[in-house]
Amino acid sequence: MEMRQLRYFAAVAQTGHMTRAAELLGIQQPPLSQQIHTLERELGMSLFRRHPRGMALTDAGRQFQVEATRLLQGMEAMSQRMARVAQGQEGSLAIGFTSSAAAHRFMPEVLRAFRRLHPKVELQLREENAAELTEALSAGRLHCALLRVPVARPEGLHFETLLREPVMAAMPSDHAFAAAARRVGVTARPLTLAQLCSEGLILVRRPGAPGLYAELLALCHSKGLRPRIVAEVDRMMTNLNLVAAGAGLSVVPASMTGAHPHAIAYRRLAGSGPLDAPLTLVSRSDEDNLPAQRFAALARELASKQGKA
């Protein structure tokens, strides 16, 4: 049984006449009549009663009409959905992000804009560290990701910096450095690298997201400083949770300075120019998922506008 035969049957059932059905379908009457006879032979039952004025459905024909209509409507719905998928208006999009990328105001803005423009695309959101996101992209489990400093650049992945922002030193609000900042003002005297290294540091574990913290350590070593690391964690928000608990100091992108405002004080870090925190879009070079392509294009557009603001 072919879908064509179902369409032929539906036309005859609708018009109740072989000639009018042929005109509706845009074919000749003899081939249509032959296809209806073939369908009846395949089913082993009569679908129509023939009479001088046309054709009427048999009881079996009426039951078959219900099933045929369901199949034809399903086929039409599938065809329309595939057309929307082909246009990138429907489908699914798996996006990964790090906690520090999610803290930037850009991420909720781009997600809201994408949902508004493509409401029928199903978004699958996943938070991991930079190393896990890169691996998931390479394995095809994600379409794109937003992270900070890439930890690796495997073949087949495309990395592009959307935005950059300065870094800030984070410390418990009752720390002596925080009290000094309140006395002299944050803008008057940024925290120095030497001051930072004189305290215990909490860093994101290097296998998970080494970029920013590897650069911090390299900068300190280049100045003859030896940081004292008291804890290494998987994610930057865990990092800030420990700072809030008084376990040590850390360095974070400026967009994260809203975390734990009553427990953490943030100060500018002198000589931190090389440590600016990028926001990086990672995607597959051969990506054929249209929603992913449209998300990347939208991210570039919005980032360009923010960069000029």
Task: Describe what you observe in this structure.
- This protein is an alpha/beta fold and 309 residues long.
- The chain contains twelve helices and twelve strands.
- The strands form four sheets. The protein has a five-stranded mixed sheet with strand order 4-3-5-12-6, with helices on both faces. The protein has a three-stranded antiparallel sheet with strand order 10-7-11, with helices on both faces. Strands 1-2 form a two-stranded antiparallel ribbon.
- It is rod-shaped and about 105 Å long.
Protein topology:
Elements: H1 3-15, H2 18-25, H3 29-43, E1 48-51, E2 54-57, H4 59-86, E3 91-97, H5 99-102, H6 106-117, E4 121-127, H7 130-138, E5 144-147, E6 157-165, E7 167-172, H8 176-184, H9 193-197, E8 200-204, H10 210-222, E9 228-233, H11 236-244, E10 250-253, E11 264-268, E12 277-284, H12 290-308
Parallel strand pairs: 3-4, 3-5, 8-9
Antiparallel strand pairs: 1-2, 5-12, 6-12, 7-10, 7-11
Helix pairs in contact: 1-2, 1-4, 6-12
Question: Concise description?
Answer:
The chain has 309 residues and is an alpha/beta fold. The chain contains 12 helices and 12 strands.
What count of helical segments does DSSP give?
Answer: 12
Shape: rod-shaped
How many beta strands in the DSSP annotation?
12
CATH H-level superfamily of the largest domain: Periplasmic binding protein-like II
